[in-house]
Amino acid sequence: MRPIAFNLTGPGYQARRGEIDAAIREVLDASWFILGAQGEAFEREFADYVGVAHAIGCNSGYDALVLALRALGIGPGDEVLTVSHTAVATAVAISATGATPVFCDIDPRTFLIDPEDAARRITDRTRAIVPVHLYGQSAPMDAVMDLARVHGLKVVEDCAQAHGARWDGRMTGTIGDAAAFSFYPTKNLGAFGDGGAVVTADPEVARSVSMLRNYGWQPGRRYVSEVRGLNSRLDELQAAILRVRLRHLDAGNGARARLAATYDAALAGVPGLALPSRDPRSTHVFHLYVVRHAGRDHIASALAAAKIGTQVHYPVPVHRQPAYLDHGYEEGSLPVTERASREILSLPMYPDLAEGDVLAVADAVRLAVGG
Predict the structure, then answer these.
(1) pTM, whole model, 2 decimals?
(2) pLDDT tens digit string along 39-91?
């Protein structure tokens, strides 16, 4: 059997090679590589795509979270609610501000934050909540925003896996006080290196992020640091590439949705296999296609033997990571999260994946399960 990779970025480049190479040449010809015309244009175009007034490019999705939280005044002594079932970058970004991440359990169907569990973890030090729009599906933002209003919390949406996803018709990234996007190469909107952006409707938050990403300099006042900032700028080459790829984002998301539908049909009725759950209020963009089965490790091994790539997102919840054991979460403290980490499996998913390969993966899963 021909190998089937878990995720490939090469085909996406080959399909748009002419456009991308031309964009790169334009940057090289201009010989301006940091905070130039390409970055400014991408920020305008991405803000328009998301539907917000401001987008500020930065070095990574992690930095975008740090910048957004700091711009909203989150710092030492504060607590920030988030999930443990996420990339560790979410928690590390909270820690980088001096605040403490407070981990909440998840919905067993969607793997997204459980607002009721989050409400039970609020203290007099809670200042913000970071809902993670995981795997391409929006967190339950109505309940998140209700919780934030009642308790006076800031909301920073983690949109690293949700480019183009929607909640009840609203684009993710437009609902909270600010949002952080990652442009890591494998994302639905990926650069050819690291990159990120903060989006917000608030001009003061945008102004603060713009300063913080560039040493704390005010625009027009080079070498004068008003605050202790970072060096976190989206470079011109990545901005130029992202401008090209942004034009094709919706088409790529559409391809992902069609592949997900093929998986759904081909895997229907496999004993014990739970397919991705869709909240009817959420438009899923399938950054990942994640199934669940008690025999996950056996299925993964069988697919590996068939030369089919899979991954687990994420095998060790953040609250059980060595770096966070001192936060006081014992094993069993987030039971839904911990069980999910033992049962989830990400199957191959990227826009250029052939439908025949999806069917081959599904056949291999059926054979492994015996259904």
Answers:
(1) 0.97
(2) 999 999 999 999 999 999 999 999 999 999 999 999 999 999 999 999 999 99
- Asked if residue 63 lies in contact with residue 213, where contact means CB atoms within 8 angstroms, the answer is yes
The DSSP string of 192-204 is SS--EEEEES-HH
All residues at 6 or more sequence positions from 66 whose CB lies less than 8 Å from its CB, including other chains = 93, 96, 97, 230, 232
Burial class (CB in 10 A: 0-12, 13-18, 19+), 164: buried
Q: Where are the beta strands (DSSP E) in 90-165?
A: 100-104, 126-129, 154-158
CA distance 336 to 279: 18
- Contact assessment for residue 94 and residue 47, using Cβ atoms and an 8 Å cutoff: no
**pLDDT tens figures, 27-42:** 999 999 999 999 999 9
Q: How far is CA 244 from CA 22, 40, 186, 362, in A?
A: 10, 14, 15, 33
Alpha-carbon gap, residue 321 to 95, rounded angstroms: 14
Distant-in-sequence, close-in-space partners of 31: CB < 8 Å, separation ≥ 6: none
CB-count burial class (<10 Å; 0-12, 13-18, 19+) for 224? exposed
**Using alpha carbons only, how large is the chain's radius of gyration in Å?**
21
Strand residue runs (E) in the chain: 54-58, 79-83, 100-104, 126-129, 154-158, 166-167, 170-171, 178-182, 196-200, 282-283, 289-292, 344-347
Query: Are the C-beta atoms of residues 300 and 336 closer than 8 Å to each other?
Result: no
Residue 192: count of CB within 10 angstroms of its CB? 17
